[in-house]
């Protein structure tokens, strides 16, 4: 393929050459390219040294270690010389705080899964120790101490851990390396996930898994060590403490099965909790997916059908910035059939002349803000001595209808006529607090060095819209008069609202007109809605994985509990059979035990789980500002039905498999 490389220096002159290149691959990690519609070719550093281009207007630095972040920023600031149009802009604490939040979420998730694992492992250990009470009693009778019995328990745990922990870590690695990216692959934002194996993460997973395993066995091991020979010889799994006389209703199978599962409240608690975690995860995640729709997101977050930006200006304002929205392009966009309204925002780089009368209160407010984020306070001399470098900002042009829209809800409406004629300018609520109304603000346009004064006629609410500039407060004037200050003010953005039903047609036309210029980025309601839908689909896939994992843990814990209960109660079932109970009746007894487990978990989910879901929704709603609470009734009914079906079928199948022998053989086996 042939690629045009512009401005290659040759013999001191700039010229365009066509050089042949072979496409050798696609670079997929585009996370740091913040622009849409890019057609970017990546070259080697060696090639760029041979063909030097113009100096980049934006250079990013990434620290290997973020400790002592601000000290490193100051070291860089002291070691490089910046000219009047260059700035070193740290990301402050925002990125670091986000890392802390991410870490907190990760810790909560780790603790959650540790707790879930603890529940099932503890239950297995507790059942195992209870089942082998007689064995540990015999060991005590033979002279073993409590410490030696604990060692036996921990040795058996260590043997299990030797095989189970590496297998579990490998399974977790497989889930994170293959299943999670597969679940997120439907969202374009995750299409280039960088999958890496970090040894420390695997070691930490191994450590926390081992910690969970041994903590789970700690209490059962103590119980094994405390068992006496006499207690062991008398032990049966059917002991239930204080006996109470019952009426005739106590003989009903559902009531008998409820009494059976209440014999061991600890076992009941652990089984119900593991089932509850799976169903609550379903409720919480389904509530999130149902409560935040793409339509609500678009209505709350995306104001215009289409928004286009001069991406280079958006990244770093430059007084000599190229006008990417040329008059020809603007004319073509305006002529698109189906546009209902079109709005422009223009910018001119300026620097202001500081004075206490106009900027004194503003500086005090600004320093209060800097003190709040632990930043160094500014002295007015910093702005007075070199305003071009230290007190530059933006002159922003807006359409009059933007001000008319603001006036509809403003407490103090602004005179649109005076604004349109250029008699007044405005400051913003973003960085203009403290500038007195009626003040005359002197400023100089940076590239043509012409000086002007504007009268401040009010303050309006203004969206930052990703604009960045120097320290000086922004000044807003009408697009009708901004050409008086600069003949070619750079168009920063063009916002379009289309006629109803013609949104896609207008978007297609805009794509056709702007796709050739990678410096023009674009957002649209249609594309944002698709991206949101893709994100929800990815989250839905990930939610399914989480729900399956948690539900599997709950079901496996239930199966293990029921299986051990049936095996350890062979004598009880044999006695029931000897006094006339049929296998069908015993089977129904066990089946109702499983049903009770499922029903208790369902009631707990319906109350506590629903409360957790509503609380999480309110927190998210408060944070993002949109969404309507929608309870996943259908999902919960289907899920609970499946769990109820499993809990009612499994006990009967296990009993059928175990009870193949006759009553006499069962009594002998129990002995």
TrEMBL record:
<feature type="transmembrane region" description="Helical">
    <location>
        <begin position="588"/>
        <end position="616"/>
    </location>
</feature>
<feature type="transmembrane region" description="Helical">
    <location>
        <begin position="636"/>
        <end position="658"/>
    </location>
</feature>
<dbReference type="InterPro" id="IPR003838">
    <property type="entry name" value="ABC3_permease_C"/>
</dbReference>
<dbReference type="Pfam" id="PF02687">
    <property type="entry name" value="FtsX"/>
</dbReference>
<comment type="similarity">
    <text>Belongs to the ABC-4 integral membrane protein family.</text>
</comment>
<keyword id="KW-0812">Transmembrane</keyword>
<keyword id="KW-1133">Transmembrane helix</keyword>
<dbReference type="GO" id="GO:0022857">
    <property type="term" value="F:transmembrane transporter activity"/>
</dbReference>
<keyword id="KW-1003">Cell membrane</keyword>
<feature type="domain" description="ABC3 transporter permease C-terminal">
    <location>
        <begin position="108"/>
        <end position="229"/>
    </location>
</feature>
<feature type="transmembrane region" description="Helical">
    <location>
        <begin position="199"/>
        <end position="217"/>
    </location>
</feature>
<dbReference type="InterPro" id="IPR050250">
    <property type="entry name" value="Macrolide_Exporter_MacB"/>
</dbReference>
<feature type="transmembrane region" description="Helical">
    <location>
        <begin position="152"/>
        <end position="179"/>
    </location>
</feature>
<keyword id="KW-0472">Membrane</keyword>
<protein>
    <recommendedName>
        <fullName>ABC3 transporter permease C-terminal domain-containing protein</fullName>
    </recommendedName>
</protein>
<dbReference type="GO" id="GO:0005886">
    <property type="term" value="C:plasma membrane"/>
</dbReference>
<feature type="transmembrane region" description="Helical">
    <location>
        <begin position="542"/>
        <end position="567"/>
    </location>
</feature>
<feature type="transmembrane region" description="Helical">
    <location>
        <begin position="104"/>
        <end position="131"/>
    </location>
</feature>
<feature type="transmembrane region" description="Helical">
    <location>
        <begin position="268"/>
        <end position="289"/>
    </location>
</feature>
<feature type="domain" description="ABC3 transporter permease C-terminal">
    <location>
        <begin position="544"/>
        <end position="662"/>
    </location>
</feature>
